[in-house]
Amino acid sequence: MRVLLWHVHGSWTTAFVQGRHEYLIPVTPDRGPDGLGRAQTWSWPASAVEITKEEAAEAEVDVVVLQRPHELHGLAEEWLGGRRPGREVPAVYLEHNAPQGRVNELFWDCGTTPTRVIEHGIVDPGERYSGDIPAAAVVVNEAGRRGRVTGTDLLGRLGAAVPLDLFGMRSTGLAGAPGVRSVADLDQQRLHGEMARRRLYLHAVRWTSLGLSLLEAMHLGMPVVALATTEVVEAVPPEAGVISTQVEVLADAARRLVADPEQARLMGKAARVAATGRYGLERFLGDWDVLLEEVGA
Fold first, then answer.
1. Among 4, 59, 66, 239, which residue's CB has the most CB atoms within a 10 Å radius?
2. Which of the residue ranges 64-78, 103-117, 122-136, 272-286 would you say has the lowest mean pLDDT?
3. If we measure between CA atoms, which residue out of 219, 280, 286, 276 comes closest to residue 19?
């Protein structure tokens, strides 16, 4: 199939474009938010092809994957030369994040629109854990801007228990968080290598979808200390780490793992087994193949 989708979420798209289809990725001269084109810091296959607006207007497209409201309300139709997604071109609307405000059916109310949950999939970075640095790795993009949603305000309290190394795009220079060291932006390969050197992975996110960085850490073989929010309670079994809604419980767990490298190693082994079993790329791509075939039929 020929699948048109915007490059919005780099880590997720990296997994998605590993499939057996041809992926048409809009690109604009300025490579702005509506035309980023191929990733610069992730490894994408040759089947992920950049396409200009002029080319897209004439292109044969079997299905379009929409990820933002303005794609549905105008942008996709503009790029498709007047063809309407969901009418002239089959479409899937992919929601990455739990919505804000009043929600029902747990999080989403889609009315009569058919829905499907496809759990994350990860390109396996390999078991690279050493844990030789007695600190916790934290990965949050734009930590300062996103604040309480991603638990940035908790990092000072947790940083008083163990040193925290904060990774993520535009997350350097985070002020007001004792014990937190911001690390310069890294490409994905270097990021995984640096994460794996830390003794544990700390996930303080309150309210987003299940973080791909958490699953990447588990694939690397890192033990996890995380808030029991979002899908964390499904993703992290007891043998793989400690999850709780109490900050002091998390702080104590982080202290114990920093002080006990062998326990951290064993938990990390369990984390990798859990993550590769549930969030492997084969299952993820297989689920998407089924959905794309249904929509494009």
1. 4
2. 103-117
3. 286
